[in-house]
Amino acid sequence: MKKVLALVMVLALALSFTACGGSGKKVKTGIAIVSSLKGTAATADETGMAQVDSTVAAVTVDESGKIVSCKIDVAQNKVPVNADGSFDTSLTFKSKQELGTDYGMTPASPIGKEWNEQADAFAAYVVGKTAAEVEAIALLGKDKHFGPDVADLAASCTMNVVDIKAAIVEACNNAQDLGATAEDTLGLGLSTEMSSSKLPTADEAGLVQTDTTYAAVTYDKDGKITSTLLNCTQAKFDVTTEGAVTPKSETIVPKMEQGDDYGMRGASPIGKEWNEQANAFAAYLTGKTASEVSAITVLPDKHNAPDVADLAASCTMNVVAFIDAVGRAMA
What we know:
By secondary structure, the chain is α+β, with helices and mostly antiparallel strands.
């Protein structure tokens, strides 16, 4: 009888461990974006530039605040501007992760590593650390391009990680319990377009506008989404026929962080703000696979709103970029 009782107790402890600390352990999902803008005027001899660099970090963190997984990317969107203010309105953009070896950091790197390799090394290094521990990572001086002052990274990451650190810390601090578990795969996708841009005329300044949509997605072993976070940054530059390029603002605040200040509510047929509609669409994706997300149809005559009855009261804005970014995150 004692042996039977002992066996029952062992089985009970094993089941308890599985429930509390093993498979299915809940984690929070977070995303954050740090952006900078630079406008350079064109001259008769040199092309100008409208450039925005948006560093994004996606994380999952456990109940003690330690990072379980981390993804890093940058949308470095550059639009060359000619001396007469003209520019290519049909440009397409790839993130630094998508560019891979085409980004071209390897020849200039003292360790011969490409940007994506170094970013992935830093992302792997912060796993197991808290936001405070990431923030405390020391950096080398300006002469070493503010690379991490970490012996364990000397052979794998020497590039500037100032914005990467800041994005990871913020992503950890704003992480939400959306249903992800520690066993899920974390993906990060970026989608950029510039359809709102317009060329300058003699009577009116032109506009270079790049809109980058971000999706942090976790999905289980069956490829079903367990959590999604969406966001967007909008970079705007005034452009004149003399080739002047001027950012419309000094900073970029992502749409999710703007809340009611973004100002969509008044123009929305359902009276919902951008962040509310984005969160509704993100919640709708839970349980779906990548193919099911890509199969979501939109209504071209209604600003590419989702053609989904369940979203009629919560999301009627353009979701094309959301679908694209989620697909990239799960690719």
